[in-house]
Write a structure and sequence with these properties.
The structure holds 2 protein chains of 2 kinds.
Chain A: H1 18-44, E1 47-49, E2 56-58, H2 62-68, H3 71-103, H4 109-117, H5 124-135, H6 141-150, H7 160-188, H8 192-200, H9 205-216, H10 218-234, H11 237-243, H12 255-265, H13 269-294
Antiparallel strand pairs in A: 1-2
Helix pairs in contact in A: 1-13, 2-13, 3-7, 3-10, 5-7, 5-11, 7-10, 8-9, 10-13, 12-13
Chain B: H1 2-17, E1 27-33, H2 37-53, E2 57-63, H3 67-79, E3 86-90, H4 94-99, H5 106-112, H6 124-127, E4 140-145, E5 147-152, H7 153-158, H8 172-184, E6 190-194, H9 197-208, H10 215-218, H11 232-246, H12 258-265, E7 269-275, H13 278-285, E8 291-294, E9 311-317, H14 323-337, H15 339-349, H16 356-364, H17 367-370, H18 373-382, H19 398-413, H20 419-441
Helix pairs in contact in B: 2-15, 5-14, 15-16, 19-20
The chains are: A mainly alpha, B alpha/beta.
C-alpha cells in the first residue's frame, strides 16, 4: 500500500512450522474466547430455547423479524447512535481541551497529570451513582440547586432529553481522562521546533494550535474516535443500569442495555442473541466506515 | 469359643445395621440465595440453627448476587449439571421455573419425604402465587411482601385530616380530597408518590379490584394468555393519576423505590406507596416527622376489596440429586416453615410469616400491639379468600412485560401518550412477548 513498505527487508523463518507454533497461543485464545462465543451467539439467534436448555427449536429468522417489527428497537438503534456520538464528542473535546491546558502547565506537571488520569480508574457503575447523586431530581445536590436558583425544570426521571444529558455526562466524564492521556502523549511528540518556528513567524497560540497541533494529532483523533464509540456502545451499560435503567419511556435504552435486560434479566436468549448479532454487525460497519472514509484524512507522519 | 464367635457376629451385624450417619459425614445441601447484608445475616442464623439442631444434614447457604444474578447462576449451574439443591427465585421468574422441567415440586417433595403438611394453615394469598393450576404448591414461599400506603401524620394534622384506619382502606376519591387539601394548603409540594408503579398501581390495583391482569386466569391456565390491563377501570385509574400529576397531587419519582422514598422523607410528598419492606427503611431514615401506614386505597364501588398480591421470592428445589439429599431438603424446608423460624424471619426482616400458626403465635404474644405497622400488610392479604384473579400472576417474560409497562406509563407521565394509548400499546407489546414465550415452550 505504502511505497516504502516494499523496500523493507523481509526476514524468513528457517522452519516452516515455527511461525505457526508461535501464533498458536494467541490463536487458541482468540478462537476460544472470541470466535467460539460469537458463533454460539449466532446459532442461538436462530433458536427459541428455554433458559435451562431443555427445549430448543430452530425458528429461522423469527427473532430478527420480531426485533425489526418492534418500532422501539429501531428507536433504540437511533438512541444508541445519538448517545455514542454525543459521548464521543464531549469526551474528546474535553480531553483535548484539558490536555492542551495541562501541556502548558508550568508547575507540578506530574501531579496535575496524575490527578487528571484518575477518573479513568472509576468503575462505570460507580461513576453512574456519583452522577446520580449530583443530578437526581429528588436527592441530587446539583439538580436541586439548578431547580431552585436557575428555575430550570430539570427532571431526568420524567424527561427523556434530560436523562440523555445525564448519562452522556456520566459516560463522557469517565472517558475524558482516557482521551487526555492520548492527547497528552500526542502533544509531547510534536517537535518543539515546529511550534517555535511558527511562533517566530508571528502565529498566536490559537493559530499554532489549529494549524500545527491539531493536524499532527489527527492519528490520535482517529484512534480515539474509534475507541470512544466502541466504549459508548459496549461499556456504558453499567452507567445506564445505575442511572436510568433505560428510562424514562425507553429514551435511554441503548442496544447493549437492551441485550442485558432481555437476555440476562429476562432470559430470552434467542432475542438477545439476535440483538448481539445486530450489534456486532453495526460495530463492524461503523469501524469499516471509519477506516474507509475518515482514515484517509489522517496524517501519520509529520 | 462358640459364644465368642456369636458375639463377634452380633457386633459386626450391629455395626452394619447402624445408620451410616453415625460414621459418615452429614449430607451437604446447597442453597443459593439473593439475601445480603442484614437479611443475609438472618439467613445465616437460620441455617446455623438447622445445622445445630441435627447431625444428618448440613446446609450451606451461598449469596449469589441480586435476584437476576442468582437465577442466572442457577440456570448456568443446571446446564453444567452442578446445580444447588435449593435456589431462591424472584416472583417474576415463577413461570420460567415452573415450565423448566428442572424442578422437584415442593408439594411432592414433602409428600415423598413423608411429611403430611396441612397447607390450609398457610397464608393463602402467599401460597397461591406459587401454586400450579391444580392448586399444588410448586415452590416454598420464602420472602414475601405486599405494597401498603405510608403517610406523613404531621402533614395530615396540619391539613386537619384524621389519621387513617389500619384495616379499613380509604377510597381513591377520598385520597383525592386528602391530597388536594394538603397540596392546596402548601403543606407538602406534592400529594402522593409511588414506588414500583407496575406492581403497586397496575398488578395490585387489578388484584384488589378483582380485575383480570391477563386472560386465562392471569396465565395460570394456559400459555395462550393475553394482557388485559387496557380495561376501562385500569385506564381510569391511570387517567386519574395523570390528572393528579397536573395539579401536583401525584408526582412521578421513578421506577424503583429510591426516588419516591427520597421525596417522602424530604417531605416533598405526604403519601408514599411501597412494599412493607419500607417500614424498616423509613424507621431508619425519618427523624423529623411522624408517619404511619394504611392499606392501599380502593374504589368506592368496591365495598369488599380483594386481597393484594405479593412480591418477593420463593425457594425452588432443583432436580438431579439423590433421595437422601432430598430428605434433607424436605427437613430443612419444614424447619424454615416452623413457628420459631417464621417468627424470627418476620421480626428481623419484616417479610410475612408464611403460616397462620406463626402469625397467631406472634399475635398471642402481643407482637402486633407493639408493632401495629407490621399487621397492615397481613390484614390486607388476609381480608379475602384469593380468587382466580387475585391469587397472582403467571406470565412468561414477566421481566420484559414490567419493563414495557414502566416505559409506557412514563410516556403517560411526561405527556407523550394518553393513558388509553399507552396501555393499549403496553398490551400489544406484552402480547408479542407472551407469544414468543408460548412458542418457545410449545
Amino acid at each position: 500500500m505504502r511505497p516504502f513498505f516494499a523496500m523493507i527487508k523481509r526476514s524468513h523463518f528457517k522452519s516452516r512450522s515455527l511461525p505457526y507454533l508461535l501464533i498458536l497461543p494467541q490463536a487458541v485464545v482468540t478462537l476460544t474466547f472470541f470466535y467460539w462465543p460469537a458463533i454460539q451467539g449466532m446459532i442461538q439467534s436462530f433458536l427459541l430455547s428455554d433458559p435451562f436448555g431443555r427445549k430448543s427449536r430452530f425458528v429461522w429468522f423469527y427473532n430478527y423479524i420480531e426485533l425489526f417489527s418492534d418500532p422501539l428497537y429501531l428507536k433504540s438503534i437511533l438512541i444508541t447512535f445519538v448517545f455514542s456520538l454525543a459521548t464521543a464528542a464531549v469526551s474528546i473535546s474535553l480531553g483535548l481541551f484539558i490536555a492542551a491546558m495541562a501541556n502548558r502547565a508550568l508547575r507540578a506537571t506530574a501531579l496535575v497529570r496524575t490527578m487528571l488520569i484518575w477518573p479513568y480508574a472509576v468503575a462505570p457503575a460507580i461513576s453512574g451513582i456519583m452522577w446520580l447523586f449530583l443530578l437526581h431530581p429528588s436527592y441530587g445536590i446539583v439538580a436541586i440547586g439548578v431547580k431552585n436558583w436557575l428555575g430550570v425544570d430539570w427532571n431526568p426521571v420524567l424527561y427523556g432529553s434530560d436523562a440523555m444529558v445525564m448519562i452522556v455526562m456520566a459516560s463522557a466524564w469517565k472517558e475524558v481522562s482516557y482521551n487526555f492521556v492520548f492527547f497528552m502523549a500526542g502533544m509531547q511528540a510534536i517537535p518543539k521546533s515546529l511550534i517555535e518556528a511558527a511562533a517566530i513567524d508571528g502565529a498566536g497560540p490559537f493559530r499554532r494550535f489549529w494549524t500545527i497541533t491539531v493536524p499532527l494529532l489527527s492519528p490520535t483523533f482517529f484512534f480515539l474516535m474509534v475507541m470512544n464509540i466502541i466504549y459508548a456502545f459496549f461499556e456504558t451499560f453499567g452507567i445506564i443500569h445505575t442511572v436510568t435503567q433505560g428510562g424514562p419511556g425507553g429514551s435511554t435504552n441503548t442496544l447493549v442495555y437492551k441485550v442485558y435486560q432481555d437476555g440476562f434479566v429476562g432470559l430470552n436468549l434467542g432475542s438477545s442473541s439476535a440483538q448481539s448479532v445486530v450489534l456486532m454487525l453495526l460495530i463492524i460497519l461503523i469501524t469499516f466506515l471509519q477506516f474507509r472514509f475518515v482514515e484517509k484524512k489522517v496524517q501519520y507522519s509529520g | 469359643m462358640k459364644r465368642l464367635t456369636g458375639l463377634f457376629i452380633v457386633t459386626l451385624a450391629a455395626c452394619i445395621a447402624l445408620p451410616a450417619s453415625v460414621f459418615a459425614k452429614p449430607v451437604t445441601i446447597y442453597w443459593w440465595h439473593a439475601m445480603r447484608s442484614a437479611r443475609g445475616e438472618v439467613v445465616a442464623k437460620m441455617i446455623e440453627g438447622f445445622n445445630a439442631s441435627q447431625s444428618d444434614y448440613k446446609v450451606v447457604g451461598t449469596f449469589k448476587g441480586n435476584y437476576d444474578e442468582t437465577m442466572n447462576a442457577g440456570v448456568a449451574a443446571f446446564r453444567a449439571k452442578k446445580q444447588p439443591h435449593i435456589l431462591q427465585v424472584f416472583e417474576v421468574g415463577t413461570q420460567t421455573m415452573m415450565l423448566s422441567g428442572a424442578v422437584y415440586p415442593v408439594y411432592q417433595l414433602m409428600a415423598d419425604a413423608g411429611y403430611d403438611i396441612d397447607w390450609s394453615r398457610y397464608l393463602q394469598a402467599v401460597l397461591s402465587y406459587y401454586m400450579n393450576a391444580d392448586g399444588n404448591l410448586m415452590s416454598m414461599p420464602f420472602n414475601s411482601s405486599t405494597p401498603i400506603m405510608y403517610y406523613n401524620v404531621d402533614a395530615f394534622e396540619k391539613a386537619g385530616i384524621a389519621p387513617l384506619s389500619k384495616t379499613e382502606p380509604v377510597t381513591w376519591d377520598e385520597l383525592g380530597q386528602i391530597t388536594k387539601k394538603i397540596v392546596d394548603a402548601g403543606i407538602t409540594p406534592a400529594g402522593m408518590v409511588t414506588a414500583w408503579q407496575s406492581w403497586t398501581q397496575i398488578e395490585n390495583y387489578s388484584a384488589i379490584h378483582n380485575l383480570a391482569f391477563a386472560s386465562k386466569a392471569n396465565g395460570y391456565e394456559g400459555l395462550d394468555t393475553q394482557l388485559e390491563i387496557n380495561n376501562p377501570k385500569v385506564v381510569g385509574h391511570i387517567s386519574r393519576l395523570k390528572s393528579w400529576a397536573e395539579d401536583n397531587r401525584f408526582m412521578y419519582g421513578g421506577q424503583k423505590y429510591q426516588g419516591p422514598k427520597a421525596e417522602f422523607i424530604a417531605q416533598n410528598a405526604a403519601i408514599y406507596i411501597d412494599s412493607i419492606s419500607g417500614i424498616a427503611k423509613l424507621k431508619k431514615a425519618v427523624k423529623d416527622f411522624k408517619w404511619d401506614a394504611a392499606p392501599l386505597p380502593v374504589e368506592a364501588d368496591m365495598p369488599a376489596p380483594q386481597n393484594s398480591i405479593i412480591g418477593g421470592a420463593s425457594l425452588w428445589v432443583l432436580n438431579g440429586h439423590t433421595k437422601e439429599e432430598y430428605k434433607g431438603v424436605a427437613a430443612f424446608l419444614k424447619y424454615l416453615a416452623g413457628n420459631e423460624m417464621q417468627e424470627f424471619w418476620h421480626k428481623e426482616t419484616g417479610y410475612f410469616p408464611i403460616t397462620i400458626d406463626a402469625y397467631e403465635s406472634l399475635k398471642a404474644k402481643g407482637y402486633y400491639d407493639a408493632n401495629p405497622l407490621q399487621e397492615v400488610g397481613i390484614n390486607q392479604l388476609n381480608r379475602a379468600i384469593p380468587t382466580k384473579i387475585s391469587r397472582g400472576l403467571r406470565l412468561g417474560y414477566f421481566v420484559q412485560i414490567r419493563n414495557i409497562i414502566n416505559e409506557e406509563l412514563e410516556q403517560v407521565w411526561n405527556g407523550k401518550k394518553s393513558p388509553q394509548e399507552a396501555l393499549d400499546t403496553a398490551v400489544n407489546r406484552s402480547n408479542d412477548q407472551l407469544r414468543t414465550f408460548e412458542k418457545t415452550y410449545k
